[in-house]
Amino acid sequence: MTTFLLATSSVHVTAAAADYLQHRLDPAGDDDIVVVAVRDPDAPSRDAGDAINVARSRLASFMPATETREGEPVTEILAAVDEHDPDELLVGPHRGSDDSDGVGSTARSLLARVDRPVIVLPLP
């Protein structure tokens, strides 16, 4: 059994994670998916809710657990990692905006601080 924690605030990141997980999960298996959408005060308020809706839709057959948190993304994601103890953490390379280039500060901070595999998903 593998537990995946998807940290997202973007429909783009969530869609990329669903594509990644479709090839990793066994529909008859007992893998768990926890989707944590973080409402960043600097991002539009509906983004986290939209990301959760995409996860529920695209990963419906795997019945992901979902939750929404508010606050600074790195702090909230690290708290979720402590609470859920996932085997893998899935994150986007940046906020999911078209103007980002490369790996953003949230992903970089998580890569430096998390003690388990961190998958930085390429965006479509």
Explain this structure to me?
With 124 residues, the chain is of the alpha/beta class. The chain has a domain at 8-71 and 100-120. The protein has helices spanning 11-22, 46-58, 73-84, 105-113; strands at residues 3-8, 32-39, 65-70, 88-91, 118-120. α2 (46-58) links the parallel β2 (32-39) and β3 (65-70). α1 runs parallel beside α2 (46-58) and α3 packs parallel to α4 (105-113). The longest helix is centred in the middle third of the chain and has 13 residues, at 46-58. The protein is globular and about 40 Å long. The termini are far apart. The mean pLDDT is 89.
Short description, anyone?
This protein is of the alpha/beta class and 124 residues long. 37% of the residues lie in helices and 22% in strands. The protein has a domain at 8-71 and 100-120.
Which terms summarize this structure?
single chain; 124 residues; alpha/beta; five-stranded parallel beta sheet; 5 strands; 22% strand; Rossmann-like_a/b/a_fold; UspA
Question: How many individual helices?
Answer: 4
Q: Over all CA atoms, what is the radius of gyration?
A: 13 Å
Question: What class do helices, strands and sheet pairing give?
Answer: alpha/beta
Report the β-strand fraction as a percent range.
15-25%
CA(first)-CA(last) distance: 28 Å
Q: Enumerate the strands of the largest sheet in spatial order, edge to edge or round the barrel.
A: 3-2-1-4-5
Secondary structure: helix percent: 25-40%
Q: How many beta strands in the DSSP annotation? A: 5
- Mean pLDDT across all amino acids: 89
- Globular, elongated, flat, extended or rod-shaped: what is the shape? globular
Task: Indicate the multimeric state.
Answer: single chain
H-E string: EHEHEHEHE
Major sheet: size, sense and barrel closure?
Answer: 5 strands, parallel
* Uncertain regions spanning at least 5 consecutive residues: none
